[in-house]
Amino acid sequence: MTTTEMPRAHAEEPAPAPAAKSPHLRQLDLYRVLTFAVVIFIHVLVATTYPEDVPAGAFEVPLHFARAAFFALTTFVLMFQYRSRPLQAKKFWRRRVPLVAVPYVVWSVLYWAYSMLTSPQPVGPLSGQLRALLIEIGTGTAWYHLYFLLVTLQVYLLFPLLLKLVGLIRRHPLPVLAVSGVVQIAVMVFLSYPPESLDYGVLSRFFVTLLPYQFYSVLGMVTAVHLETVHDWLRGHVRWVVAALVAGLVITETGYFLSVRHGVWPESAADAYRPYLLPWIVAAVCGLYLAGSRWAEGRQRAGRFVSWAVDRSFAVFLSHPLALALLAPLISFVGDRYGAPWTTFVIYPLTVALTFAIVTVLRRVPWSKALTGRARVRASA
Protein backbone atom coordinates (compact mmCIF):
# COMPACT_ATOMS: atom_id res chain seq x y z
CA MET A 1 0.00 0.00 0.00
CA THR A 2 1.41 3.40 -0.96
CA THR A 3 1.19 6.57 1.08
CA THR A 4 -1.88 7.63 -0.86
CA GLU A 5 -3.80 4.36 -0.71
CA MET A 6 -6.22 3.76 2.13
CA PRO A 7 -8.83 1.11 2.92
CA ARG A 8 -12.22 1.70 1.34
CA ALA A 9 -14.85 3.32 3.56
CA HIS A 10 -18.38 2.16 2.67
CA ALA A 11 -21.53 3.35 4.36
CA GLU A 12 -22.38 -0.14 5.62
CA GLU A 13 -18.99 -0.66 7.29
CA PRO A 14 -18.58 0.19 10.98
CA ALA A 15 -16.68 3.35 11.78
CA PRO A 16 -13.07 2.98 12.95
CA ALA A 17 -12.38 2.95 16.65
CA PRO A 18 -12.21 6.48 18.09
CA ALA A 19 -8.60 5.98 19.15
CA ALA A 20 -7.40 5.18 15.64
CA LYS A 21 -5.15 7.84 14.15
CA SER A 22 -5.55 9.05 10.59
CA PRO A 23 -2.72 7.99 8.26
CA HIS A 24 -0.20 10.55 7.10
CA LEU A 25 -1.01 11.70 3.58
CA ARG A 26 2.37 12.20 2.00
CA GLN A 27 0.87 13.90 -1.07
CA LEU A 28 -0.13 16.84 1.12
CA ASP A 29 3.51 17.57 1.91
CA LEU A 30 4.30 18.51 -1.68
CA TYR A 31 0.92 20.26 -1.93
CA ARG A 32 1.86 22.42 1.03
CA VAL A 33 5.38 23.23 -0.16
CA LEU A 34 4.25 24.19 -3.66
CA THR A 35 1.49 26.37 -2.24
CA PHE A 36 3.91 28.26 -0.01
CA ALA A 37 6.31 28.71 -2.92
CA VAL A 38 3.52 30.30 -4.97
CA VAL A 39 2.44 32.54 -2.08
CA ILE A 40 5.96 33.89 -1.71
CA PHE A 41 6.23 34.39 -5.45
CA ILE A 42 2.99 36.35 -5.74
CA HIS A 43 4.08 38.67 -2.92
CA VAL A 44 7.45 39.18 -4.62
CA LEU A 45 5.70 39.83 -7.92
CA VAL A 46 3.49 42.51 -6.37
CA ALA A 47 6.47 44.10 -4.63
CA THR A 48 8.58 44.22 -7.81
CA THR A 49 6.00 45.43 -10.34
CA TYR A 50 3.63 48.38 -10.65
CA PRO A 51 -0.15 48.24 -10.08
CA GLU A 52 -0.79 49.50 -13.61
CA ASP A 53 1.45 46.83 -15.20
CA VAL A 54 -0.99 44.83 -17.37
CA PRO A 55 1.34 41.87 -18.13
CA ALA A 56 2.25 41.57 -14.45
CA GLY A 57 -1.43 41.50 -13.54
CA ALA A 58 -2.06 38.79 -16.12
CA PHE A 59 0.69 36.73 -14.54
CA GLU A 60 -0.53 37.45 -11.03
CA VAL A 61 -4.22 36.66 -11.36
CA PRO A 62 -4.01 32.84 -11.70
CA LEU A 63 -1.54 32.62 -8.82
CA HIS A 64 -4.34 33.49 -6.41
CA PHE A 65 -5.28 29.82 -6.39
CA ALA A 66 -2.71 29.45 -3.59
CA ARG A 67 -4.96 31.40 -1.24
CA ALA A 68 -7.83 29.01 -1.89
CA ALA A 69 -5.49 26.03 -1.63
CA PHE A 70 -4.57 27.13 1.88
CA PHE A 71 -8.14 27.25 3.11
CA ALA A 72 -9.06 23.98 1.41
CA LEU A 73 -6.06 22.31 3.04
CA THR A 74 -6.89 23.68 6.49
CA THR A 75 -10.40 22.25 6.59
CA PHE A 76 -9.33 19.10 4.75
CA VAL A 77 -6.79 18.22 7.44
CA LEU A 78 -9.25 18.87 10.25
CA MET A 79 -12.11 16.94 8.66
CA PHE A 80 -9.90 14.01 7.68
CA GLN A 81 -8.71 13.67 11.26
CA TYR A 82 -12.18 13.78 12.76
CA ARG A 83 -14.45 12.38 10.05
CA SER A 84 -14.81 9.05 11.89
CA ARG A 85 -14.05 9.89 15.49
CA PRO A 86 -15.56 12.14 18.12
CA LEU A 87 -14.31 15.61 18.89
CA GLN A 88 -14.36 17.33 22.26
CA ALA A 89 -14.73 21.01 21.44
CA LYS A 90 -13.00 22.45 24.50
CA LYS A 91 -10.07 20.07 24.21
CA PHE A 92 -9.81 20.81 20.50
CA TRP A 93 -9.81 24.56 21.07
CA ARG A 94 -7.25 24.36 23.89
CA ARG A 95 -4.88 22.40 21.68
CA ARG A 96 -5.38 24.11 18.31
CA VAL A 97 -6.18 27.76 18.95
CA PRO A 98 -3.00 28.76 20.85
CA LEU A 99 -0.78 27.31 18.10
CA VAL A 100 -2.17 29.95 15.74
CA ALA A 101 -3.37 32.69 18.08
CA VAL A 102 -0.08 33.18 19.92
CA PRO A 103 2.11 33.53 16.79
CA TYR A 104 -0.60 35.71 15.25
CA VAL A 105 -0.49 38.19 18.13
CA VAL A 106 3.32 38.05 18.41
CA TRP A 107 3.85 38.70 14.70
CA SER A 108 1.20 41.41 14.66
CA VAL A 109 3.22 43.20 17.34
CA LEU A 110 6.48 42.61 15.49
CA TYR A 111 5.17 43.95 12.20
CA TRP A 112 3.52 46.88 13.99
CA ALA A 113 6.86 47.73 15.60
CA TYR A 114 8.69 47.32 12.31
CA SER A 115 6.25 49.70 10.64
CA MET A 116 6.86 52.34 13.29
CA LEU A 117 10.64 51.96 13.20
CA THR A 118 10.81 52.23 9.42
CA SER A 119 8.14 54.88 8.92
CA PRO A 120 9.52 57.96 7.13
CA GLN A 121 6.90 60.09 8.89
CA PRO A 122 6.44 60.83 12.62
CA VAL A 123 4.36 58.04 14.14
CA GLY A 124 2.61 60.15 16.77
CA PRO A 125 2.04 59.40 20.46
CA LEU A 126 2.51 55.85 21.70
CA SER A 127 -1.02 55.69 23.09
CA GLY A 128 -2.46 56.23 19.62
CA GLN A 129 -0.14 53.62 18.14
CA LEU A 130 -1.18 51.10 20.79
CA ARG A 131 -4.83 51.69 19.95
CA ALA A 132 -3.96 51.17 16.30
CA LEU A 133 -2.21 47.91 17.21
CA LEU A 134 -5.30 46.60 18.98
CA ILE A 135 -7.41 47.44 15.93
CA GLU A 136 -4.91 45.74 13.64
CA ILE A 137 -4.91 42.59 15.78
CA GLY A 138 -8.71 42.56 15.76
CA THR A 139 -8.92 43.04 11.99
CA GLY A 140 -5.90 41.08 10.76
CA THR A 141 -4.31 44.15 9.20
CA ALA A 142 -0.98 44.45 11.03
CA TRP A 143 0.61 43.17 7.80
CA TYR A 144 -0.89 42.13 4.50
CA HIS A 145 -0.72 38.35 5.05
CA LEU A 146 -1.88 38.07 8.65
CA TYR A 147 -5.58 38.01 7.72
CA PHE A 148 -5.04 34.33 6.89
CA LEU A 149 -4.33 33.51 10.52
CA LEU A 150 -7.40 35.41 11.64
CA VAL A 151 -9.55 33.43 9.21
CA THR A 152 -7.86 30.21 10.32
CA LEU A 153 -8.84 30.98 13.90
CA GLN A 154 -12.42 31.42 12.72
CA VAL A 155 -12.24 27.97 11.11
CA TYR A 156 -10.96 26.47 14.37
CA LEU A 157 -13.69 28.12 16.41
CA LEU A 158 -16.41 26.97 14.01
CA PHE A 159 -15.05 23.50 13.31
CA PRO A 160 -16.96 21.64 16.06
CA LEU A 161 -20.13 22.99 14.43
CA LEU A 162 -18.91 22.25 10.91
CA LEU A 163 -18.14 18.68 11.95
CA LYS A 164 -21.85 18.13 12.52
CA LEU A 165 -22.27 18.40 8.75
CA VAL A 166 -20.21 15.27 8.13
CA GLY A 167 -23.34 13.11 7.77
CA LEU A 168 -24.88 15.49 5.25
CA ILE A 169 -21.60 15.69 3.34
CA ARG A 170 -21.32 11.91 3.30
CA ARG A 171 -24.83 11.49 1.86
CA HIS A 172 -25.08 14.52 -0.43
CA PRO A 173 -21.59 15.85 -1.32
CA LEU A 174 -22.47 17.39 -4.68
CA PRO A 175 -25.54 19.35 -3.48
CA VAL A 176 -23.48 20.67 -0.56
CA LEU A 177 -20.78 21.84 -2.96
CA ALA A 178 -23.35 23.32 -5.32
CA VAL A 179 -25.03 25.40 -2.62
CA SER A 180 -21.66 26.58 -1.32
CA GLY A 181 -20.58 27.38 -4.87
CA VAL A 182 -23.63 29.54 -5.51
CA VAL A 183 -22.93 31.46 -2.30
CA GLN A 184 -19.29 31.84 -3.32
CA ILE A 185 -20.18 33.28 -6.72
CA ALA A 186 -22.59 35.73 -5.09
CA VAL A 187 -19.93 36.84 -2.60
CA MET A 188 -17.29 37.25 -5.32
CA VAL A 189 -19.65 39.31 -7.47
CA PHE A 190 -20.50 41.49 -4.48
CA LEU A 191 -16.84 42.04 -3.56
CA SER A 192 -15.78 42.68 -7.16
CA TYR A 193 -18.70 44.92 -8.15
CA PRO A 194 -19.96 46.46 -4.89
CA PRO A 195 -22.67 49.15 -4.77
CA GLU A 196 -21.20 52.59 -5.26
CA SER A 197 -22.82 53.74 -2.03
CA LEU A 198 -20.89 51.16 0.00
CA ASP A 199 -17.83 52.54 1.75
CA TYR A 200 -14.63 50.59 1.07
CA GLY A 201 -13.87 50.49 4.80
CA VAL A 202 -17.02 48.43 5.30
CA LEU A 203 -16.26 46.26 2.28
CA SER A 204 -12.71 45.54 3.43
CA ARG A 205 -14.02 43.95 6.62
CA PHE A 206 -15.35 41.04 4.56
CA PHE A 207 -11.83 40.11 3.48
CA VAL A 208 -10.85 38.99 6.98
CA THR A 209 -13.91 36.81 7.54
CA LEU A 210 -14.48 33.22 6.47
CA LEU A 211 -17.27 34.24 4.08
CA PRO A 212 -15.13 34.95 0.94
CA TYR A 213 -13.34 31.63 1.42
CA GLN A 214 -16.18 29.40 2.56
CA PHE A 215 -16.42 27.44 -0.71
CA TYR A 216 -12.76 26.46 -0.53
CA SER A 217 -13.26 25.35 3.07
CA VAL A 218 -16.31 23.30 2.08
CA LEU A 219 -14.34 21.82 -0.82
CA GLY A 220 -11.68 20.70 1.64
CA MET A 221 -14.25 19.14 3.95
CA VAL A 222 -16.07 17.29 1.17
CA THR A 223 -12.79 15.97 -0.19
CA ALA A 224 -11.74 14.73 3.25
CA VAL A 225 -14.99 12.85 3.81
CA HIS A 226 -14.82 11.24 0.36
CA LEU A 227 -11.04 11.15 -0.01
CA GLU A 228 -10.79 7.61 -1.35
CA THR A 229 -13.35 8.29 -4.07
CA VAL A 230 -11.91 11.69 -4.98
CA HIS A 231 -8.36 10.34 -5.04
CA ASP A 232 -9.25 7.46 -7.35
CA TRP A 233 -11.26 9.72 -9.67
CA LEU A 234 -8.45 12.25 -10.02
CA ARG A 235 -5.84 9.56 -10.60
CA GLY A 236 -8.05 7.95 -13.22
CA HIS A 237 -8.97 11.17 -15.03
CA VAL A 238 -5.66 13.00 -15.45
CA ARG A 239 -6.63 14.25 -18.90
CA TRP A 240 -9.84 15.75 -17.52
CA VAL A 241 -7.88 17.56 -14.86
CA VAL A 242 -5.42 18.92 -17.44
CA ALA A 243 -8.31 20.01 -19.68
CA ALA A 244 -9.95 21.75 -16.71
CA LEU A 245 -6.69 23.53 -15.93
CA VAL A 246 -6.39 24.82 -19.49
CA ALA A 247 -10.05 25.85 -19.68
CA GLY A 248 -9.91 27.52 -16.26
CA LEU A 249 -6.79 29.45 -17.17
CA VAL A 250 -8.34 30.64 -20.45
CA ILE A 251 -11.47 31.81 -18.61
CA THR A 252 -9.39 33.61 -15.98
CA GLU A 253 -7.13 35.41 -18.45
CA THR A 254 -10.03 36.31 -20.72
CA GLY A 255 -11.92 37.77 -17.78
CA TYR A 256 -8.85 39.72 -16.70
CA PHE A 257 -8.12 41.25 -20.11
CA LEU A 258 -11.78 42.07 -20.74
CA SER A 259 -11.95 43.81 -17.37
CA VAL A 260 -8.85 45.85 -18.14
CA ARG A 261 -10.19 46.69 -21.59
CA HIS A 262 -13.37 48.04 -19.99
CA GLY A 263 -11.46 50.36 -17.70
CA VAL A 264 -10.81 48.28 -14.58
CA TRP A 265 -7.45 49.07 -12.98
CA PRO A 266 -5.08 46.10 -13.63
CA GLU A 267 -4.43 45.65 -9.92
CA SER A 268 -8.19 45.37 -9.29
CA ALA A 269 -8.81 43.16 -12.30
CA ALA A 270 -6.17 40.77 -10.93
CA ASP A 271 -7.46 40.52 -7.36
CA ALA A 272 -8.43 37.22 -5.78
CA TYR A 273 -12.19 37.84 -5.62
CA ARG A 274 -13.01 38.11 -9.32
CA PRO A 275 -15.72 35.58 -10.28
CA TYR A 276 -13.85 34.49 -13.39
CA LEU A 277 -11.18 32.98 -11.12
CA LEU A 278 -13.40 30.30 -9.61
CA PRO A 279 -13.19 27.59 -12.34
CA TRP A 280 -9.41 27.95 -12.47
CA ILE A 281 -9.09 27.80 -8.68
CA VAL A 282 -11.02 24.54 -8.43
CA ALA A 283 -9.00 23.00 -11.27
CA ALA A 284 -5.70 24.26 -9.80
CA VAL A 285 -6.44 22.81 -6.35
CA CYS A 286 -7.30 19.47 -7.98
CA GLY A 287 -4.16 19.64 -10.09
CA LEU A 288 -2.04 20.45 -7.06
CA TYR A 289 -3.42 17.44 -5.18
CA LEU A 290 -2.91 15.26 -8.24
CA ALA A 291 0.71 16.40 -8.58
CA GLY A 292 1.29 15.58 -4.92
CA SER A 293 -0.28 12.14 -5.36
CA ARG A 294 1.87 11.24 -8.34
CA TRP A 295 4.94 12.42 -6.45
CA ALA A 296 4.03 10.45 -3.32
CA GLU A 297 3.46 7.27 -5.33
CA GLY A 298 6.76 7.65 -7.17
CA ARG A 299 10.35 8.14 -6.06
CA GLN A 300 9.51 11.25 -4.00
CA ARG A 301 12.37 13.29 -5.40
CA ALA A 302 13.73 15.83 -2.91
CA GLY A 303 11.68 14.07 -0.24
CA ARG A 304 13.98 15.05 2.63
CA PHE A 305 13.85 18.71 1.63
CA VAL A 306 10.05 18.57 1.31
CA SER A 307 9.75 17.13 4.83
CA TRP A 308 12.17 19.75 6.16
CA ALA A 309 10.24 22.56 4.43
CA VAL A 310 6.86 21.29 5.64
CA ASP A 311 8.11 21.37 9.24
CA ARG A 312 9.00 25.05 8.72
CA SER A 313 6.14 26.06 6.45
CA PHE A 314 4.17 27.99 9.07
CA ALA A 315 7.26 29.95 10.09
CA VAL A 316 8.02 30.62 6.41
CA PHE A 317 4.54 32.02 5.93
CA LEU A 318 4.85 34.24 8.99
CA SER A 319 8.29 35.65 8.22
CA HIS A 320 8.64 35.87 4.42
CA PRO A 321 7.04 39.37 4.22
CA LEU A 322 9.71 40.55 6.67
CA ALA A 323 12.42 39.14 4.41
CA LEU A 324 10.82 40.87 1.44
CA ALA A 325 10.63 44.16 3.34
CA LEU A 326 14.30 43.92 4.28
CA LEU A 327 15.13 43.50 0.60
CA ALA A 328 13.32 46.73 -0.34
CA PRO A 329 16.56 48.71 -0.99
CA LEU A 330 17.76 45.97 -3.31
CA ILE A 331 14.39 45.95 -5.08
CA SER A 332 14.78 49.65 -5.78
CA PHE A 333 18.40 49.23 -6.90
CA VAL A 334 17.66 46.36 -9.32
CA GLY A 335 14.34 47.84 -10.45
CA ASP A 336 15.83 51.20 -11.36
CA ARG A 337 18.47 49.53 -13.51
CA TYR A 338 16.77 46.53 -15.06
CA GLY A 339 13.02 46.85 -14.47
CA ALA A 340 10.52 44.01 -14.81
CA PRO A 341 10.58 41.07 -15.01
CA TRP A 342 14.27 40.87 -14.09
CA THR A 343 13.70 42.39 -10.67
CA THR A 344 11.21 39.65 -9.84
CA PHE A 345 13.57 36.91 -11.01
CA VAL A 346 16.39 38.30 -8.85
CA ILE A 347 14.38 39.05 -5.72
CA TYR A 348 12.38 35.81 -5.52
CA PRO A 349 15.27 33.41 -4.78
CA LEU A 350 16.81 35.96 -2.45
CA THR A 351 13.52 36.27 -0.56
CA VAL A 352 13.28 32.49 -0.21
CA ALA A 353 16.90 32.24 0.97
CA LEU A 354 16.56 35.09 3.48
CA THR A 355 13.27 33.67 4.75
CA PHE A 356 14.84 30.28 5.43
CA ALA A 357 17.73 32.02 7.19
CA ILE A 358 15.29 33.91 9.43
CA VAL A 359 13.32 30.72 10.13
CA THR A 360 16.50 28.83 10.99
CA VAL A 361 17.27 31.43 13.65
CA LEU A 362 13.71 31.57 14.97
CA ARG A 363 13.48 27.78 15.34
CA ARG A 364 16.55 27.82 17.58
CA VAL A 365 15.53 30.53 20.04
CA PRO A 366 13.90 29.58 23.36
CA TRP A 367 10.58 31.18 22.41
CA SER A 368 10.37 29.35 19.07
CA LYS A 369 6.85 28.07 19.71
CA ALA A 370 5.46 31.58 20.15
CA LEU A 371 7.19 32.71 16.94
CA THR A 372 6.72 29.68 14.71
CA GLY A 373 4.07 27.46 16.28
CA ARG A 374 6.72 24.73 16.59
CA ALA A 375 9.00 23.58 19.39
CA ARG A 376 12.60 24.74 19.46
CA VAL A 377 15.11 22.92 17.25
CA ARG A 378 18.39 22.16 18.97
CA ALA A 379 21.58 23.38 17.33
CA SER A 380 22.61 19.83 16.39
CA ALA A 381 19.33 19.21 14.46
From TrEMBL:
<dbReference type="InterPro" id="IPR002656">
    <property type="entry name" value="Acyl_transf_3_dom"/>
</dbReference>
<dbReference type="GO" id="GO:0009246">
    <property type="term" value="P:enterobacterial common antigen biosynthetic process"/>
</dbReference>
<comment type="similarity">
    <text>Belongs to the acyltransferase 3 family.</text>
</comment>
<keyword id="KW-1003">Cell membrane</keyword>
<feature type="transmembrane region" description="Helical">
    <location>
        <begin position="239"/>
        <end position="258"/>
    </location>
</feature>
<feature type="transmembrane region" description="Helical">
    <location>
        <begin position="30"/>
        <end position="50"/>
    </location>
</feature>
<feature type="transmembrane region" description="Helical">
    <location>
        <begin position="96"/>
        <end position="114"/>
    </location>
</feature>
<keyword id="KW-0808">Transferase</keyword>
<feature type="transmembrane region" description="Helical">
    <location>
        <begin position="142"/>
        <end position="162"/>
    </location>
</feature>
<protein>
    <submittedName>
        <fullName>Surface polysaccharide O-acyltransferase-like enzyme</fullName>
    </submittedName>
</protein>
<dbReference type="GO" id="GO:0016413">
    <property type="term" value="F:O-acetyltransferase activity"/>
</dbReference>
<feature type="transmembrane region" description="Helical">
    <location>
        <begin position="273"/>
        <end position="292"/>
    </location>
</feature>
<dbReference type="Pfam" id="PF01757">
    <property type="entry name" value="Acyl_transf_3"/>
</dbReference>
<dbReference type="GO" id="GO:0005886">
    <property type="term" value="C:plasma membrane"/>
</dbReference>
<keyword id="KW-0012">Acyltransferase</keyword>
<feature type="transmembrane region" description="Helical">
    <location>
        <begin position="313"/>
        <end position="334"/>
    </location>
</feature>
<feature type="transmembrane region" description="Helical">
    <location>
        <begin position="65"/>
        <end position="84"/>
    </location>
</feature>
<keyword id="KW-1133">Transmembrane helix</keyword>
<keyword id="KW-0812">Transmembrane</keyword>
<keyword id="KW-0472">Membrane</keyword>
<feature type="region of interest" description="Disordered">
    <location>
        <begin position="1"/>
        <end position="20"/>
    </location>
</feature>
<feature type="transmembrane region" description="Helical">
    <location>
        <begin position="340"/>
        <end position="362"/>
    </location>
</feature>
<feature type="transmembrane region" description="Helical">
    <location>
        <begin position="174"/>
        <end position="194"/>
    </location>
</feature>
<feature type="domain" description="Acyltransferase 3">
    <location>
        <begin position="27"/>
        <end position="360"/>
    </location>
</feature>
<feature type="transmembrane region" description="Helical">
    <location>
        <begin position="206"/>
        <end position="227"/>
    </location>
</feature>
